[in-house]
Amino acid sequence: MILRPARRLEGIERTLIRRIFDAAPPGAINLGLGQPDLPTPPPMALAGVSAIVEGRTGYTSTAGDPELRAAVAERYPGVASGADNVVITVGSQEGIFLACLAMLDSGSEMLYPEPGYPAYPMVARLVGAKPVPYPLRADGGFSLRAEDIERRLTLRTGAVILSAPSNPTGAGHKTPELERLLSVLRSRNVPWISDEVYAAITYDDRGASPGEISPEGGLVISGLSKEMSMTGWRVGWVVGPQAILSRIVAAQQYIVTCASSVSQRAALAAFTSEGRAYGKRYLARLLERRSLMALELSEIPNVRFAVPHGGFYFFADVSAYGSALETARRILERANVITIPGPAFGAGAEGYLRLSFAASEQDIVHGVRRIRRELTGP
Amino acid sequence: MILRPARRLEGIERTLIRRIFDAAPPGAINLGLGQPDLPTPPPMALAGVSAIVEGRTGYTSTAGDPELRAAVAERYPGVASGADNVVITVGSQEGIFLACLAMLDSGSEMLYPEPGYPAYPMVARLVGAKPVPYPLRADGGFSLRAEDIERRLTLRTGAVILSAPSNPTGAGHKTPELERLLSVLRSRNVPWISDEVYAAITYDDRGASPGEISPEGGLVISGLSKEMSMTGWRVGWVVGPQAILSRIVAAQQYIVTCASSVSQRAALAAFTSEGRAYGKRYLARLLERRSLMALELSEIPNVRFAVPHGGFYFFADVSAYGSALETARRILERANVITIPGPAFGAGAEGYLRLSFAASEQDIVHGVRRIRRELTGP
């Protein structure tokens, strides 16, 4: 007997990124990283140990540890007035899934950015919605244009995914465009889902955020994975109006019950002054690495890039050297450096490579130099 | 602007069990527990601490830690030949959700036991399937009858949920009935989903298991929460044929990414000889508590019960004292003891109370005596 998969799994595949990692030779320099190479900071690690020692190993409430929810709420003064506006999730990934499950009817359309995080269209399909891409344009620095989204709204649009700083481009929202978009969405009664998992990693201007402009109009998704180097702990959150959050909590009971109790206590330490201080140190470290990678990349002729506003990726135009997929493969096979080709993030990214600077200084320098030698010859 | 929930959330509510807990007065004796009051055993706790100290705090592969998958596979020699037959999930709850998401098409029917774990029909609704209950009959000791399921199979049946030992009744499957059922399901090409989260907690005969009889015909769901007192760590698994599991892994990437890396290392220790020894000690402890609760319950006139085959609940017929809901409320409000009324588990359980013996010996004795005094008068 063969177990037939449900139709909704058609086209649900591991991302190209995962497949590149799995096929990478051992010893490769990894500039494909989606997580910092830095350890989880001591305050959070110790809080995790304490949680175990103190026996905090039973279920938390479905919505999450009340102290953690209250701490998260304080980060979003415009959106959250307290713990009731926060649900703790299994990383921001479960936050995105829950938000889509809770707001997208089967058959409705979900608008998402392209290039963008490849999970968005997959999540839409898993909940029976139709993913509809909207373009982020290279000539606009990959920042959203309200018009590009507005033109794609239909009576069946169930939600619009917004993402800043963007993975892979590092772009933020520009306030006038975002204000214009949110005003349209409000008038059309279409909610936004704002993926802000890189929001704490911004280097200059924080950029505009949907929650501050239209606090009742959607859900904010984020987590500690990237900013605190806590990817494996799996702690994220959804922040938004209480009425929809209470429905999300009810659904979460039947999907994961709750996030790990140990991880939630570790996460709480990120909101103490010690935890925050580490967040600042890590951000400073990433800022140095950004400068380092910019310097090294600028040494490669005919590679064009913008220094990213946030996140920890350069999105570099290498089209002078051929297609992105071929270039990434050539760099991997002959220079032993992992990079992610633009098409992994959807249309509009042909000719680009994503290069992570969440790697060690040594890997950044050696990795980019190897790429240079491979592309330009000895 | 009001964020409208998707239609699939209609009727998705917190369970009656959760609501009873939330409304319970402080200081109540809790015989409603769904988790042992015992701590996570030291080998697993220490392994969790080591994982943190060693910095195992990044993503694991989506399918889970390969060592843990291999260890789980060894527990299911008939079903799994190795790690590729195992996906590590965020508790058995996510296992049930993934199994339903992966096998139930929108609009298909899912058969589930009543009385049974209240999450089954909720999960079906969340994935757009129609939950169809099949009865477990008190006069058959709440064990499944193949005929009761067979009669409810239609061309739209997408899967049948099986559960043993049952929450709330403690009943196991009887081999002849299970064999007959699985033969029918095979011939009709209908997969089973076997919830075995209490399978390691059996006191005499282990009972028949679907995976041993029809290894290619479905998915086994389990986890460490109950048997190792690890509910808060959130580690479970799905075991089954590789073809469908690879699709489940792809879906898991977009729901939770992976289970907590720290929790997965803690879980691995449960499969060492030290970990297993604790499992046996905990089982022996529960066995004593089962005897203790049986003794105390037998002192209440007109309360009828079967000693449970597995799990850690008595499902006692208290119909001589009125409706289950009224009796549970009366016991809570006047005797300050939490119990779960049968109707929390669906139809066919009117007149019953679920009493957990995953509580301390003292709570078992005092709790049941308080119930006796309340029901029979001073």
Characterization of the model:
2 copies of one chain form a homodimer. Chain A is α/β, with parallel strands linked by helices and 378 residues long. Chain A has 2 domains: 10-40 and 275-376, Aspartate Aminotransferase, domain 1 (Alpha-Beta Complex), CATH 3.90.1150; 42-272, 3-Layer(aba) Sandwich (Aspartate Aminotransferase, domain 2). Helix content of chain A is 39%, strand content 14%. Chain A is built from 13 helices and 12 strands. In chain A, the strands form 3 sheets. A 7-stranded mixed beta sheet of chain A has the order 2-8-7-6-5-3-4, sandwiched between helices. A 3-stranded antiparallel beta sheet of chain A has the order 9-12-11. In chain A, strands 1-10 form a two-stranded parallel sheet. The longest helix of chain A has 25 residues, at 273-297. The radius of gyration of chain A is 21 Å and the shape is globular. The mean pLDDT of chain A is 95. The interface between A and B is large, with 82 and 82 residues.
